Amino acid sequence: MVVINPFWLSGFVDGRGSFYIGIDADPVFELGFQVLPEFRIICCDEEPALLYSIRTYFRHGVVFTNNANCTIEYRVREVGALYSAVIPFFERYPLYTRKKFDFYCFRDVIRMMERKEHLTLEGLEQIKKIKSKMNKNKDEDIVRT
Amino acid sequence: MVVINPFWLSGFVDGRGSFYIGIDADPVFELGFQVLPEFRIICCDEEPALLYSIRTYFRHGVVFTNNANCTIEYRVREVGALYSAVIPFFERYPLYTRKKFDFYCFRDVIRMMERKEHLTLEGLEQIKKIKSKMNKNKDEDIVRT
């Protein structure tokens, strides 16, 4: 198990992490949509110990292997964990790349979800607007493709 | 200009950096080969300020834009700079991914070059062996492609 330095982790997320808001059509929900936030870090599949150490650091999330493209991912989707662990971490150990803009948007959405505003039509529309501004930087392409 | 935290920089290099040894055929050199070491960080072309800040931190290297694939790169090739600035940095602020293995190989080669051993047949052969073990981790593919 690797002992994670939080500043190192912030830098690694600037290189390999992402903040994503999914809005999926789902008739189970009253408004017809489900909001699905996700913080993730993608590595090659040779780094499981590192990602499990990051999971231990945050005390939340899951690590899983994507055999299709030989990657391993750490991800956190649960709103409570994002609100209580992930958001405060990046407020204390800030990002330096343009990914920090995605983080600010992500934080706004998580705070709205914590207040259950994503379950109102007005809140959902606002989240859609925020989402439309996110993940525009090309860093994502460099890491993902 | 961004004030760079060294632990953050170590994490960012774990995500986006690489250590590379080139061995190019060149009849100008007595042995017929030139050894070309390179430390580099690749970002999307939206991050010039960040890479110039990293350049300022190391006090060596160059930043240039690769228009062909919309990336911007920071790189250090000069052996003296690698020996005096880059190598000591990663000894003090270690990498966590398997990229640290590449760093150890790279460090061995730079130390040999500092002692001019790359200009001997025995040294060149040893560097070829070290190079053959480097950059095997698939992280490179994730970042580069």
Could you give the order of strands across the largest sheet of chain A? 1-2-4-3
CATH superfamily of chain A: Homing endonucleases
List the secondary-structure elements of chain A in sequence, H or E. Answer: HEEHEEHHHH
Q: What portion of the residues of chain A fall into strands of 2 or more residues?
A: 15-25%
Number of strands of chain A: 4
Mean pLDDT of chain A: 91
Greatest interface and its residue counts? A-B, 34 and 34 residues
Task: Give a structural overview.
- 2 copies of one chain form a homodimer.
- By secondary structure, chain A is α+β, with helices and mostly antiparallel strands.
- The first copy, chain A, has a single domain (6-141), classed as Homing endonucleases (Endonuclease I-creI).
- Chain A is built from 6 helices and 4 strands; from the N terminus they run αββαββαααα.
- Chain A has helices spanning 6-16, 48-58, 79-92, 99-114, 121-133, 139-144, and strands spanning 17-25, 33-44, 62-66, 71-76.
- In chain A, strands 1-2-4-3 form a 4-stranded antiparallel β-sheet.
- In chain A, a hairpin with a 7-residue loop joins strand 1 (17-25) and strand 2 (33-44).
- Residues 140-145 of chain A have low confidence and may be disordered.
- Chain A binds chain B through residues 2, 4-16, 42-47, 50, 70-71, 93, 96-98, 137-139, 141-143, 145, and chain B through 2, 4-16, 42-47, 50, 70-71, 93, 96-98, 137-139, 141-143, 145.
